[in-house]
Each structure stands twice: as structure tokens, then as C-alpha cells.
Write a structure and sequence with these properties.
The complex is a heterodimer of chains A (about 210) and B (about 120).
Chain A: H1 10-34, H2 39-55, E1 58-60, E2 64-66, H3 71-78, H4 80-98, H5 106-131, H6 137-162, H7 168-197, E3 198-200
Helix pairs in contact in A: 1-4, 1-5, 2-4, 3-4, 3-5, 3-6, 3-7, 4-5, 5-6, 6-7
Chain B: E1 10-12, H1 16-32, H2 42-49, H3 76-108
Helix pairs in contact in B: 1-3
Classes of the chains: A mainly alpha (about 210), B mainly alpha (about 120).
Chain lengths: ~210, ~120
């Protein structure tokens, strides 16, 4: 789901470029404050995984394919701000080096895929995991992945509609329709990797010095 | 001390072996990338259905590896795997350098919060 050049009208791509740059600036600032040096190689490797997995388009119904985005996965692992930085790096490299996603649409792609995707996925994860007190990690991560891609695709639909491509209702229906199927793949990959890279936090027990 | 129910009870694994295996998986995905489906993805499909796929243009045409292919390698399979691995490496190096520089500058200006 990389918007190419030419899909967005001038006012949309200019304003999303400004918005994307501002959002990335604040995410970088937040990352600087909160990241520990030990996390750096982990964050970079998860970024590489997301880049690699985005290349693997999997076929879904009706001669259409989908691919992993990774916002939910990165935000489950590192929080939504660091996740947005990771996804932004991947999207910028894809646009510059691999001609995937337009340069004028980069801001829109950052805002939707990196920021909206990461925050939507994290909202679902942090709410559900607390609600279930840590039970059902697979289901929670699956749902976070699914929601993140569906919400991000709705965001792209809104931008396309705002550019006068097609009416809002049609845009949302078409984008959400296809991406709710693609979201199943997103959810499965998110859940499998989260289960693999996570371990239960060891909470100090009563009477045992921490 | 009892932990609060509001805390998220998971943390990222510090097991080095797990991370090395994860790296192996990432490289393996690079080898699998030539088998990726070339059907249109969700957005492209919508653009086809509603007749605006032809609006797509390329403003920036200096990309060295367009469409995830290293065109200077004449073996199709190899060129895709090579481009994929190169991308994996670029993302890793770019992210490590950005994060390292951010952290160094943060230390210099006292912007790192003590946790």
C-alpha cells in the first residue's frame, strides 16, 4: 500500500508532506529521549525484517495480492513512536532506492503507513493486553495487526477521496474491503513474530528482594 | 511487591540466539522474494477498479534499484535476491546510524531521560 506520485492532488500532497515531516521530527525527538543503547541493534533488525517482509506479496482472492506493513509489530515491540521512526526509515529507503511509493506521496505514506498504522495497532494492543492481563498474546497481536492495516488503508482512502479521485464512501468501502482480507496476513505475521520475540516480564515476587 | 495490573507483562527477549535466528529468517525472506506474488496489491487493485491507476507517475527516476531488481545482474532470480539483501543491509545500517547519532547528540545535550 504505497501511494505513487500522481494519485494525490497538489494541496493534499503538500499538506501531508509538511505533516509527515513534522510528525517524523517529533517521533525522532521522543525516540532520542526514551531509547536505550541496547535497543539499537534490535530496532534496526526489526526494521530489516519489516523491509524484507514487505517485499513478499502474498496472493489473496481475485487476482490481488497483499503485503505486510509492520506498524503494529514494531509498535508492540518498541512503542508507537519508535515504530513510526522504523517504518519511516523503511518507506524513505523504498521510495529513494527502489522507486516504491512516490516522492511527492512520501509524506502521505509516512502519515498513514508509519504513524496511523503504528498508533492504531498499539492502541489495540495496549488496551487488549491490559484488559486480558497478558493472556492471549497471539490473538491480541493478530487483532492489532489487522486493525492497523485496515485503519491505515481507510486513511489512504480518505486522502484519495480528498484528492478528488473518487467519493469518500466509495473510497472507504473499496480500501477497507480489500485490506480487511490483507489484514489477516498482517495479523498472522505480527502475532507469530511477537510471540517469538517476546518473553514474560519477570515481576519480583513478594518477600524476594528484586 | 505485587505488580500492577496496568503494566504490560511482556518484554522483548534478550536471548542472543533468538536474535541470530531472527537475522537468519530475515536473510531467508530475501531469498524467497523472487517468489512474491506480482499481482496488484490492495491499493493498485482499487486504483484499477476505479480507473485511476494510469494517474501513477514517477517524479523521482534516479532510483538505483527500481522494482526491487538489480538490473545490472542478468540472472533474474539473482538480481531480485541481491536487491533484496542490499535493501535489508541498507535499512539495518541506516537505522543503526540514525539511532546512534540521535543517542550521541542526546547525551551531549542532556536530552536523555533517566529511566
Amino acid at each position: 500500500m504505497h501511494i505513487p506520485d500522481g494519485f494525490l492532488n497538489t494541496i493534499t500532497w503538500v499538506s501531508t508532506s509538511i505533516g509527515g515531516a513534522a510528525a517524523l521530527g517529533s517521533a525522532l525527538k521522543y525516540t532520542q529521549r526514551t531509547m536505550t543503547p541496547k535497543q539499537m541493534p534490535q530496532i534496526a533488525l526489526v526494521g530489516s525484517f519489516i523491509f524484507a517482509a514487505q517485499m513478499l506479496n502474498f496472493p489473496i482472492a481475485g487476482a490481488t495480492s497483499g503485503h505486510f506493513l509492520g506498524g503494529a509489530l514494531a509498535s508492540i515491540l518498541f512503542g508507537p513512536m519508535i515504530a513510526s521512526v522504523v517504518l519511516s526509515a523503511v518507506l524513505i529507503i523504498q521510495a529513494l532506492v527502489f522507486q516504491d511509493g512516490g516522492i511527492t506521496a512520501l509524506g502521505a505514506n509516512l502519515l498513514m503507513t508509519a504513524f496511523v498504522g503504528s498508533f492504531a495497532g498499539y492502541a489495540v494492543y495496549s488496551f487488549m493486553i491490559r484488559l486480558l492481563r497478558g493472556r492471549g498474546l497471539f490473538m491480541v497481536a493478530f487483532l492489532a495487526g489487522w486493525v492497523s492495516i485496515v485503519v491505515a488503508s481507510a486513511g489512504v482512502g480518505v486522502l484519495l477521496a480528498a484528492s478528488g479521485t473518487f467519493p469518500f464512501a466509495v473510497a472507504l468501502k473499496a480500501m477497507i474491503g480489500w485490506h480487511s482480507v490483507i489484514g489477516i496476513g498482517e495479523g498472522l505475521i505480527t502475532a507469530m513474530v511477537a510471540i517469538y520475540l517476546f518473553e514474560r516480564r519477570a515481576f519480583p515476587q513478594r518477600g524476594v528482594p528484586a | 511487591m505485587k505488580y500492577k495490573n496496568t503494566a504490560i507483562p511482556f518484554q522483548i527477549s534478550q536471548n542472543k540466539k533468538k536474535w541470530i535466528f531472527f537475522l537468519a529468517i530475515v536473510l531467508m525472506i530475501g531469498v524467497l522474494s523472487p517468489f512474491a506474488s506480482s499481482q496488484p496489491d490492495g491499493l493498485e487493485r482499487v486504483a484499477q477498479d476505479y480507473d485511476f491507476i494510469d494517474n501513477a507517475t514517477n517524479v523521482f527516476t534516479a532510483s538505483p534499484l527500481p522494482d526491487y531488481e538489480a538490473r545490472f545482474i542478468h540472472w533474474h532470480f539473482g538480481s531480485i535476491v541481491f536487491a533484496g539483501w542490499l535493501g535489508i543491509g541498507i535499512v539495518f545500517i541506516a537505522l543503526t546510524s540514525i539511532l546512534y547519532l540521535l543517542h550521541k547528540r542526546g547525551e551531549k545535550h542532556g536530552r536523555i531521560s533517566e529511566s
